[in-house]
Amino acid sequence: MSEKQNQKPAIAHGKSISSSALRIMLVLKWLVKYKQLDEETLRGLLIEYTYLNRSCTPETFSKYINTLTTLGCDISKKSQGKGKKIYYILKKTPFPISLSLGEQILNEKIMAVLSAQGQTLLLNQYFDFLEKLWWHTDKEIKPNTRLTEVLFEKASAKHKKNLQTFNQFCKDAFILELQYREEIASQIVQLQVEPYQLVERQGRFYLYALNVASSSQVVLLIDRVVSVHQLPTKNKYKQPLSHVVFSLYGRLASSYRLYPGESVVFKSEQELHIKASVLETDSIIQRLLKYGVSCQLLAPLSLRKIIKKKIQEKNEFLTTF
Amino acid sequence: MMQNAIKKNKSINSTAYRIYRILEWLIDKPLTLTEINMRFKNDPQIGKFLSSDSVLFYFNTLKAIGCKIQRPSPRNNFHYRLLYHPYGFALSNQSINLLAAVKQTLQNAFCHQEILELDIFFKKILTTENPSYHQPVIDYVPHSKTTTGANQNKSAGHEKQLQIKALFEKSRSVDYANFESHIKILENICNINKQLLIDVEYNSPVKGKENFLFLPELLFYEEGALYVRGERPEFSFPSSLRVDRINTLSPTEDKKWLTVLSARQKELLVIEIQLFVPKKELFEGTGLKPQHGVYQETLHWVDHAEPEQCHYRVTLTVRDFFYIKQFLLASPFLFKILQPDYFLVDLKTALETLSAYYEKDNQLKY
After folding, report:
1. ipTM of model
2. Hey, which residues does B219 pair with through a beta bridge?
3. Mutate which of B51, B60, B322 to test chain A, going by most A C-beta atoms within 10 A?
4. 3-class DSSP assignment, residue B104
5. pTM given for the model
6. Which of A14, A44, A172, B324 is the most exposed place for a label (fewest CB within 10 A)?
7. Cβ contact, residue pair A119, B105, below 8 Å
8. Which pLDDT value is given to residue A275?
9. Is A277 within 8 Å of chain B by CB?
10. 3-state secondary structure of A201
């Protein structure tokens, strides 16, 4: 098919369009999406595209790339593999997001705070995110400037291995057999657990899992895992969540903003009942106690007993001389 | 002529070239047909004006690629406005969860200005495919009333608005985009310590709309919301108002109340507590700041042969008890109040009321 024939207006949604321009802009769209594609794939995609069920010769395709490079798109060409496939690599986005110096400094602050708080998991994920984002910006230098690089290395060196290994275990969802040093007696016990989620609190990593033997949730401190290996059996259950219901009174009931995972189950002028699904209960107990007389935990009974005990202890101690 | 002197590149597709340029220009800002034609004329590769039919043809092609463009009309001063293009940084739901988690983690470490900067930055990333979000609205038109707006909005802009909403919901925070002027006024008063009394119309969660005088002291961000702390004539202790609940605010000349409230700001009290901590390293401080009514905190470690007697003597200079009471109730450590007595009585009453709540297990409905 010659270029002249291609230039005959095509019809999209009842309106005439330029099919060759559409093809060129589509090539750019796919290169933005995949960053690197071989010519064969790109030409195949063009043929498959709804309005353009026509072939595309190598010469025409070269003209498309030439148009894009003339427009300023940073596209390079390289041969690779056994069949010497021709790959097109888009080095930078054609329509960059402009990042101000203030925004770059802000990102360094974000990384510094995450690092200082020992949020290695989040720091790693945010760093990966920034690397992807940088391709779409007008900045040549990636965020791993000296400062962030140092922070990143410092933060990740300590936990990198555990992070990657246990994150992968959670993704794979195979039962784990592990040796674990107990906190109190320091004895090493053998456990089989279904891993669900790796959580970081105050710089320490915890594995939320289900103990296969007792069918109850366990929270294991990663530092205390002596050895671990995967068994060829998949997790049977979904991640167990604890469901908590609490009531709020007075001003707090009127102004309360729901936390993620919370829903209102009852509402009156004086009272608000909230149902929360939480991974662990320690944090929510602490938060509910903070609300003082404006809050009461309604369910489950087991948590009510824990709160009751805490309050009684505080009350008795407060007036002991 | 100038354009004749520039050698045109003939091995390119000129239609694609023009379409790409239109997209590039519209990402920058909305343009009229005349403005687009002026740019065509000035472009070395084009160098001429084009007919309206040609431009329409180019717009149809852009739409076929997936761009959403608002048509010119009297309502938008006859500008073409790009609502969406498919070449931006596409974010998955997982990325939004990540941004929300980052924001939530930073909320207690960043000051309110940094949090507001962070909000703007995250919104900018979320809307890279929606340049219209950042472009000034030429003439505001409700989406339901525009000819093309409703459908375009659903497919592109609306989706992004939902992503922004999700970001704020997941990080349990308030979007302060519409409160810029209130924030500027309050920052101006608080940051340079101007003793300026204001008249506030406030949307109270309990009383509904109410008007009162207020002497702002400090702006602070906490748990996803921006507050202004200050004095009100009705209360002897300071109040914290949520900025997004302030409907209107205006300076007032009331000298009498200004004198009273300024004096009240300086009425500080001292609280002394024994906090029983088995190991010194387990406790670093209450984490309370001036925004919590705590202006000074000293910790004195008292070691003892019996670990259960080891404690910190915590001395706090405070303006009110609200946050210190919250801290003590939530603390994992046991405590005693050395002074003042009425704070001890207040805490004792609270703990007894709480104990009573948990006596009636048999009446529960959940």
Report:
1. 0.79
2. B228
3. B60
4. helix
5. 0.79
6. A14
7. yes
8. 96
9. no
10. strand
